[in-house]
Design goal:
About 45% of the residues lie in helices and about 10% in strands. By secondary structure, it is mainly α. It has one domain: Glycoside hydrolase 144 (GH144) (Glycosyltransferase). The longest helix is centred in the first third of the chain and has 21 residues. The protein is globular, with a radius of gyration of 22 Å.
Amino acid sequence: MKRTSVLIFLSSIVLVIVIACTSGKKAVTKSNTIPAEYEKIYTDVQRTTFQYFWDGAEPTSGLARERFHVDNQYAENDKNVVTTGGGGFGVMAILVGIERGFISRQQGFERLQKIVNFLEKADRFYGAWPHWLYGETGKVKPFSRKDDGGDLVESSFMIQGLLAVRQYFKEGNGQEKELANKIDKLWKEVDFNWYRNGKNVLYWHWSPNYAWEMNFAVTGYNECLIMYVLAASSPTHGISAEVYHEGWAKSGKINDTTTKYGYTLTLSHNGAKEYGGPLFWSHYSYLGLDPRGLKDRYADYWEHNKNHTLIDYEWCVENPKKYKGYGADSWGLTASYSVKGYSGHAPGLDKDLGVISPTAALSSMPYTPEQSLRAMKHWYKNLGEKVYGTYGFYDAFSETENWFPKRYLAIDQGPIVVMMENHRTGLLWRLFMGCPEVQEGLKKLGFQSPHLRP
């Protein structure tokens, strides 16, 4: 009896310790089991979309190509052009590939080593890469006439991904630690303060030939929150909290409430006040920045992103413009290829052009799992090869126009892989939010998060 009592007592202590160590961390560590009816499709979509960044990568740099067209329209001259932002999403996708068993850890390491070695030698401007680079040389390819220098937003997307890679390999073998140290150096060389242009706001571009003539001060709300978080987190060129509050948040004017279909947005979406902007605004910054429980004086970012997604979904279900194919199993409006060029599709009579972008629903998997799973299954099973190919779902389609182009864009494929994994395991959220600098930067800006340590 005495022995039994001691064992029960010790077991109780262990249980208390486990509870104490895990309390308050549920939102951080929770994984989601994918329903059996979706599991095979879910993994296949992740695997094929990952291949865009693996088999489909530009061979010299190892980075993601800006675009790839199976139908070869308009893309032949771009086959060696790589993208900084989409490449940042791609390095996160490679980590998913390792964790899912699509590639080995060593294969993933070698590709990431090639990418980091390329980025070390590629053109940079006060630490920031340009939007586009030639993969064979690392030289800038101008995005437009005056956009031929540093792009701080795209570089922030890259740094977000690289920091996740750093965290993944920092406790590994000697070579892996060396890779982590190289990433740390690249991160610390980004001069966020330079991109203030002497003001309490961050500017998107700087050119060695046109200086600040692009004159694009980045204010919220849009896809760029991650840039301000990284700028505040930089241990070498960090900005003050005033740059965030006066610049990004416009001294509080970032708040402007709108309610549609019973869902409220508390942040003013630039140029899309009534229904909210394209859905990539709730994706790009949150590939690493975990929105679960993330709050500051302006918003609860989980509630905001979820409501943003549900408004998009409900608009497509209501389908006021009566487009063919819209409904509960086919929805999602965001920036993508369009029937005529490229467009920032969003709810609204002037912004909805009848084009569904699969990345919109799939990258929203954490926010709307039931609705996103239903759309994924419908497209995969019922539309099949019309919308699905070697590198996953094609960028966009329109049943109304009978328009099914076989084209991919890196910035749309990357969030699919990453956000589907974040929904499943929280992998990239856990890695990025584990960065000590990010934790300090978030605290500096007044954020709350279950990830933040006292």
